[in-house]
């Protein structure tokens, strides 16, 4: 007899996605405070936050392709 499944694949994927979503919100709020705390100027904070957002925008298409491939969905 096989052991009971504690969590199916969809639940684990949703949990991991939820973790990274809220982690990114946390970074968006706390990263400028951290940079300021270690002596960063406003220009450096703006540069880091701009790069942070640009990387997020650039990674979305590749993340979408990966998630569609692993899920088997899409056209």
Tell me the count of domains: 1
Summarize the main sheet.
none
Structural class: mainly alpha
Cα distance, first to last residue?
38 Å
What portion of the residues fall into strands of 2 or more residues? under 5%
Q: Can you tell me the residue ranges where pLDDT is under 50 for at least 5 consecutive residues?
A: none
From the spread of the alpha carbons, the general shape counts as: elongated
How many E-type strands? 0
Number of helices: 2
Helix and strand succession?
HH
Rg, alpha carbons: 18 Å
Mean residue pLDDT: 81
Percent in helix:
over 70%
Description of the molecule:
The chain is mainly α and 75 residues long. It has one domain. The protein is built from 2 helices and no strands. The protein has helices spanning 9-37, 42-71. α1 runs antiparallel to α2. The radius of gyration is 18 Å and the shape is elongated.
Task: Describe the protein's topology.
Elements: H1 9-37, H2 42-71
Helix pairs in contact: 1-2
In short:
The protein is an all-alpha fold. Helices cover 79% and strands 0% of the residues.
Which features would summarize this protein structure in a list?
0% strand; elongated; mainly alpha; 75 residues; 2 helices
């Amino acid at each position: 007899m096989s052991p009971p499944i504690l969590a199916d694949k969809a639940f684990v994927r949703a949990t991991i996605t939820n973790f990274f979503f809220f982690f990114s919100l946390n970074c968006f709020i706390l990263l400028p405070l951290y940079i300021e705390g270690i002596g960063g100027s406003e220009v450096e904070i703006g540069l880091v936050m701009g790069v942070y957002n640009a990387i997020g925008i650039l990674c979305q298409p590749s993340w979408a392709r990966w998630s569609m491939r692993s899920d088997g969905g899409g056209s």
